[in-house]
Write a structure and sequence with these properties.
The chain is mainly α. Helix content is 58%, strand content 11%. The chain has a two-stranded antiparallel sheet.
C-alpha cells in the first residue's frame, strides 16, 4: 500500500471502530498485530459483492468478445504463472 506504519495503523483503527476488523496479537512477534476480518466486515463484503460483480461484468466483461476474453485469460496466465513459483511471494 506504500503507507507509513502510522497511517496504516490509523486507518485500521478507523475501520476497527466500524466493526469491520479486529486486531489480534501476532503469534510470533509481540510487537506486531494481525488484522482479522470481523463478522461485520464479512457481512459488508458479502452485501457488496453481488453489486460489485454485476458492475464489473457490465462495465468490463460484457464489452469484450469471446476472443478478447480468451486473450485476456492467456495474458493473465502468462503474468501470474511465474508468481506462483516465486519463493519470495508472501503466502
Amino acid at each position: 500500500m506504500l503507507w507509513s506504519r502510522s497511517r496504516l495503523s490509523h486507518h485500521i483503527a478507523r475501520i476497527e471502530t466500524c466493526g469491520l476488523v479486529t486486531r489480534e496479537a501476532h503469534p510470533e512477534d509481540g510487537r506486531g498485530a494481525v488484522v482479522v476480518l470481523a463478522p461485520g466486515g464479512r457481512h459488508a463484503i458479502e452485501g457488496g459483492a453481488p453489486g460489485h460483480v454485476a458492475s464489473v461484468r457490465a462495465h468490463f466483461f460484457d464489452r469484450l468478445t469471446p476472443a478478447e476474453i480468451e486473450a485476456l485469460a492467456e495474458i493473465t496466465d502468462k503474468v501470474v504463472e511465474p508468481l506462483r513459483d516465486d519463493p519470495q511471494r508472501p503466502a
